[in-house]
Design brief:
The complex is a heterodimer of chains A (224) and B (288). By secondary structure, chain A is mostly helical. Chain A contains eight helices and no strands. In chain A, helix 3 packs across helix 7. Chain A is globular. The model of chain A has no long low-confidence stretch (mean pLDDT 87). Chain B is of the alpha/beta class and 288 residues long. A six-stranded mixed beta sheet of chain B has the order 6-7-8-3-9-10, sandwiched between helices. A four-stranded antiparallel beta sheet of chain B has the order 2-1-4-5, with helices on one face. A four-stranded antiparallel beta sheet of chain B has the order 12-13-11-14, sandwiched between helices. The chains are: A mainly alpha (224), B alpha/beta (288). Chains A and B meet through helix 1 and helix 4 of A and helix 2 and helix 3 of B.
């Protein structure tokens, strides 16, 4: 396991040092202009997820998966190493980005706005969602498939919104968002704050485990 | 002598290409050449051994154990060279060593750097700046640097100059002298195998044509050259492949003794080279 993580770190050390540094500074300055913590968290968690993805797409780019899978390691171990390193990188980048926001001149939010139980749970929940849903997709379809999927989602979003705004589609997006929000609020009211967080945490772990099992299943069946 | 590799009834279906009931074994301490034309299934077999492809049926045992169930143990004792040496292009050879070496407990840094020097590979050079031949040499250096008991080479000599090809063959021959190490070597440059292989496995259209000791193959198979008047139905059936010309024919048989009896004094009978066998079996149909 350690060797697999070390391998990926060595392979990407230059990329992580240069792109990672630029990425943190850029996101930090950009995020410091935002005055809503929720918007900052949604924006930064997604960007924190993209960097690990870029690392794994580099293996696709160099077609080096055959070599990785010829080394003494099982495919399950390879996926586990990717999940561990992916989560580590996401968390490190997220924390560094948030710190960059706080030190950026003219920042609009304080440490208490960005680092409290509610925002930390929101960030973890979003990272879990992005990572758990998109990683199996990345493993199955590779770099090109992944970006086609993301672009398709965006195009689908634009089409849906356009149709909804022209009343050609009976879709009340505000009602959908409100329904999701109400569901979480009612859950919080019933369980109490500690119970609600424990429930969220359990869901995140379950989703991550499901995603991992799915990714291993896909990768084991992949002909290289 | 135990078998280092045992393949039984191996099947793989790609839809447009099928590997059908492939069976052969390689005894420990020997070199086996896997020959066949392009697209015959050589790389598929090698990838199945390394569990890079999922088999649809059959068994693969390496060192006596299943290649999937005991994957890590097996792979730590295998040195591999793929037909296209894909490593991370943006790393130096030194950095690539750092990514691969920790996976092998018997990794020998001294041997690795000695091989780099012998192969004229600068350790600080970026992988992407190497020529195809140099990339292949680097893959070989990696494969040989952890004292693997079983070396699997997929077309390792393609892209190599003749001088280095000879050196490589000599190195592989020397490697098996301790009778513990074994080599599976896929190629369509059959002259390489005539130099060093102990066993030959010939695959065509996803099926094994034969798998036998090289000396036995070269002893049994022959090329018969005779006038067209000898090409009757019975003789046609006797041959594995025929090449007809204006004044006569050349044909391949897998029974040199019978050919000598049948055509005594009437035809020229020569020992078949591996290239002859490959040519007639793939191009010279029985009714050419």
């Amino acid at each position: 396991m350690r060797n697999l993580i070390l391998k990926d770190l060595i392979l990407n050390k230059k990329f992580l040092s240069y792109v990672g540094l630029f990425y943190i500074l850029y996101v930090g300055v950009f995020g410091s202009r935002i005055d809503n913590p929720k918007v900052d968290i949604i924006f930064i968690t997604f960007l924190s997820f993209i960097l690990p993805v870029m690392i794994y797409t580099r293996e696709d780019k160099f077609k080096a998966t055959v070599v990785s899978c010829s080394l003494p390691a099982t495919r399950r171990q390879i996926i586990l190493a990717r999940y561990i390193l992916g989560w580590l990188l996401m968390l490190i980048i997220y924390v560094l980005d948030m710190m960059a926001i706080l030190v950026a001149p003219g920042h609009k939010l304080g440490a208490a706005d960005l680092f409290n139980a509610r925002t930390i749970f929101l960030a973890l929940a979003l990272m879990t969602l992005y990572f758990s849903i998109l990683m199996p997709f990345l493993i199955r379809f590779g770099m090109v498939g992944f970006f086609v999927f993301l672009i398709s989602l965006q195009v689908l979003g634009v089409i849906t919104l356009t149709l909804a705004s022209k009343k050609m589609l009976n879709l009340d997006i505000k009602a959908w968002v409100a329904a999701i929000n109400n569901a979480f609020m009612s859950l919080n009211a019933r369980l109490g704050t500690p119970g609600y967080y424990a429930f969220l945490l359990a869901m995140m772990l379950l989703l991550s485990l499901g995603s991992f099992v799915c990714s291993v299943f896909i990768f084991k069946r992949k002909d290289l | 002598m135990p078998n280092v590799l045992e393949i039984e009834n191996l099947n793989k279906d790609y839809g447009d290409f099928k590997l059908k009931d492939v069976s052969f074994a390689l005894p420990q301490g020997y070199i086996m050449g896997l020959i066949g034309p392009n697209g015959a299934g050589k790389t598929t077999i090698i990838k199945l051994i390394l569990n890079l492809l999922r088999r649809d049926g059959g068994d693969i045992k390496v060192f006596g154990v299943d290649n999937v169930n005991d994957e890590v143990t097996i792979k730590s004792r295998i040195g591999f060279v793929h037909d296209t040496p894909f490593f991370y292009e943006s790393l130096t050879l030194n950095s690539l060593r750092a990514t691969v070496a920790p996976f092998y407990k018997d990794w020998d840094d001294g041997l690795f750097y000695r091989l780099l020097r012998e192969f004229d590979l600068p350790a600080r050079k970026l992988f992407r700046k190497l020529s195809r031949g140099m990339k292949m040499k680097f893959a070989l250096a990696v494969a040989l640097s952890h004292h693997a008991d079983f070396i699997i080479l997929d077309e390792p000599t393609s892209g190599l100059d003749p001088v280095f090809r000879r050196e490589l063959l000599a190195r592989l021959s020397a490697l098996i002298q301790d009778e513990k190490k074994s080599v599976l070597f896929s190629t369509h440059i059959t002259s390489d195998l005539e130099r060093i292989a102990d066993y030959i496995t010939f695959i065509h259209n996803g099926r094994i044509v034969f798998s036998a000791a090289k000396d036995e193959v070269l002893e049994k198979w022959a090329v018969v050259k005779a006038g067209n008047n000898f090409l009757n139905d019975d003789n046609r059936k006797f041959f594995k492949g025929i090449r007809k010309r204006e004044f006569g024919f050349e044909a391949l048989t897998s029974d040199a003794t019978e050919a000598r009896r049948r055509f005594a004094g009437k035809a020229v009978i020569e020992k078949a080279s591996l290239e002859d066998i490959m040519y007639y079996m793939t191009r010279g149909g029985n009714h050419a």
